[in-house]
Amino acid sequence: MTFSIVARCPRTGQFGVAAATAMPAVGKLLTHAAAHVGAVAT
């Protein structure tokens, strides 16, 4: 099972992405973010 979350700060506009999973190193593949664009957790 994998849990993912994406959040945006309304004050600063910054994005945060986090993922938790039981499989080692899979979290690196799940989250993507780009400045001035947005963030995605697959």
Give a quick set of tags describing it:
42 residues, mainly beta, two-stranded antiparallel ribbon, 1 helix
Care to describe what's here?
This is DUF1028 domain-containing protein. The chain is mainly β. Helices cover 10% and strands 52% of the residues. It has one helix spanning 27-30; strands at 2-8, 15-21, 31-34, 38-41. Strand 1 (2-8) and strand 2 form a beta hairpin. The chain is elongated and about 35 Å long.
Shape: elongated
User: What is the alpha-carbon Rg in Å?
Assistant: 11 Å
Structural class: mainly beta
**How much helicity do the residues have?**
under 10%
Number of domains in the coordinates?
1
Number of helices: 1
Total strand segments: 4
SSE blueprint and pairings:
Blueprint (H helix, E strand, L loop, with lengths): L1 E7 L6 E7 L5 H4 E4 L3 E4 L1
Antiparallel strand pairs: 1-2, 3-4
